[in-house]
């Protein structure tokens, strides 16, 4: 599972740039800035990381209904988890 980290705690700003983030090509461990927000391709994460994070009380879990994408928000970061089968437009 691929993970893109978006370093902001502002949900409204995250929502505003979400589609841009999803359409921005990133190499593994590459960082870019979109509207003043740092985004980073965090590489592959094991499935158990997502399962562990879901159980924490300080983590908000969101699902994108029409795609198999999970978004976690905790602290000052949003993590977008994209399954390998999902094709992100680049």
Based on the model shown, name its key terms.
six-stranded antiparallel β-sheet, single chain, alpha+beta, globular, 90 residues
Structural features, described:
The protein is of the alpha+beta class and 90 residues long. Helices cover 22% and strands 39% of the residues. It has 2 helices and 6 strands. It has helices spanning 11-22, 47-54, and strands spanning 2-7, 31-34, 37-44, 60-64, 69-74, 77-82. It has a 6-stranded antiparallel β-sheet. The radius of gyration is 12 Å and the shape is globular.
Number of helices: 2
Compute the number of strand runs: 6
Helical residues, percent? 10-25%
Gross morphology is globular
Helix vs. strand class: alpha+beta
Radius of gyration: 12 Å
How is the main sheet built? 6 strands, antiparallel
Termini, distance in Å? Answer: 17 Å
| Mean pLDDT across residues | 91
H and E string: EHEEHEEE
The low-confidence runs, each spanning 5 or more residues with pLDDT under 50, are: none
Question: Order of strands side by side in the largest beta sheet?
Answer: 2-3-1-6-5-4
Content of β-strand: 35-45%
Concise summary:
The chain has 90 residues and is α+β, with helices and mostly antiparallel strands.
List the helices and strands and how they pair.
Blueprint: E1 2-7, H1 11-22, E2 31-34, E3 37-44, H2 47-54, E4 60-64, E5 69-74, E6 77-82
Antiparallel strand pairs: 1-3, 1-6, 2-3, 4-5, 5-6
